[in-house]
Amino acid sequence: MDRLSGLDASFLYLETPAQLMHVCGLLVLDVSTMPGGYDFEGLRSQIDAHVREVPAFTRRLRRVPLGLDHPVWVRDRSFDIERHVHRLALPTPGGYRELTDLAGHLAGLPLDRSRPLWEMWVVEGYADGKVVVLSKMHHATVDGVSGANLISHLCALSATDAPLAPVPEVARAREAGPAELLGRGVLSTAARPLQLARLVSPSATLVTRTVGRARAGTAMAAPLTAPRTSFNGTITGHRSIGLADMDLDDVRAVKSASGTTVNDVVLAVAGGALRSYLQERGELPTESLLATVPVSVRGSSRRSEGANKVSALFTRLGTDIEDPLERVRDLAVRNRHAKDHHNAISADSLQDWAEFAAPRTFGLAVRAYAGLRLAERHPVVHNLVISNVPGPPVPLFFVGARIEALYPLGPVFHGAGLNITVMSNAGELHVGVIACRESVPDVDDLVQRFPVALAELREAVSAPGR
């Protein structure tokens, strides 16, 4: 029996018909490299062979009686690959617009909780004979790092090599009966007051230190201090998607010339794109936008259980700064303070507090929050989520097909209907933007400003005397 951690379970409780908590990935495949050529049935059979013995692909949820504790994972004894890998074809002419429209529709569909929480849509008929795979995995199952590890069960360094991650040898745990689950839930509930007492003192110390950092000007940006924009309200279940590419060498050139980091440059480019987008619409706030940046704590966490080992920091994107070079330098300073502040916080802090997320009350609270449209009544917590995910430095092959591009897409939230995720892949940076369609109806206009913002930043750092 494998119990979900509090943080994993929280992504289940946060989910509503409008606020879907799965993460997506768009893989553009050159199927001409597949030994024997492309065939959907063959592709699905290979996927089945690679995932059938991987627990993360073949487990489903089981609730604890009376909702006394977080759910547990159990083996899906009726696992059927046909329920998870589906086939579609793009309408004519099968271009970028048709692909993003279809991907937005699929991203807005919830996963079936009675089965393992993942699915893939194999989309045929894309430009130049390419095939696109849209993968969906629930955030209760993966974070950025564990999601990449799962995909590695299907990827190799050449069309004929074995997958990077071999099938693990895992002893299947026995399944607990309802009475045992109920007993474990009662014990877990009884132990929570003691667990809470252990967290209060370190948290109080953290608050005191944060106040000191704020007075010294070295604290990360504070939540609830973001300016309001058109994408900071109650969201719907409709999604719009935009995709763009940037040259990783251009980003590294800016990094070297400005003495910053790749992450600083990516955030500065996002700030420039958002500034241009909002300014053209007459919506640019005088204050800088505030982004939540997920941070992996997998290397420093003491916890062995749970798929999600993440924390988050808040940072200003410099959308109030016109000069690109000044923006990236300002971001570099802010990010150093934010990282120092974040490192002073226990890596397990978010996971520890998430254990107190009550299955019933948490879900009811989220639905009440959405129904009352409270995101539009209180100060804005943050404007958007931005992730920068390191990907493979060399080309990879997905069950024999060369991956030409890999666009990650994260969830959007009530109050922050925009998510930007950037992933490196064999010398390129692939930008995936997903948004609530009603909040950002022209998401493609935003994402196409990323290469432009990068070009402006490179020109700024290359100018004589700068």
Quick description:
With about 475 residues, this protein is an alpha+beta fold. It contains 13 helices and 16 strands.
Name the descriptors.
13 helices, single chain, 37% helix, 466 residues, globular, 7-stranded mixed sheet
Account of the 3D structure:
This protein is about 35% helix and about 20% strand. It is an alpha+beta fold and about 475 residues long. It has a 7-stranded mixed beta sheet, with helices on both faces. Strands 9-16-15-12-10-11 form a 6-stranded mixed beta sheet. A 3-stranded antiparallel beta sheet has the order 1-4-3. β13 and β14 form a beta hairpin. α8 crosses α13. The termini are far apart. The model has no long low-confidence stretch (mean pLDDT about 90).
Number of helical regions: 13
Strand content: 15-25%
The total beta strand count reads 16
Q: Enumerate the strands of the largest sheet in spatial order, edge to edge or round the barrel.
A: 5-6-7-2-14-13-8
Output the radius of gyration: 22 Å
Question: So what's the overall shape?
Answer: globular
Biggest beta-sheet profile: 7 strands, mixed
Cα-to-Cα separation, first versus last residue: 60 Å
Strand-pairing-aware structural class: alpha+beta
| Mean pLDDT metric | 88
Helical fraction equals 25-40%
Q: Enumerate the spans where pLDDT stays under 50 for 5 or more consecutive residues.
A: none
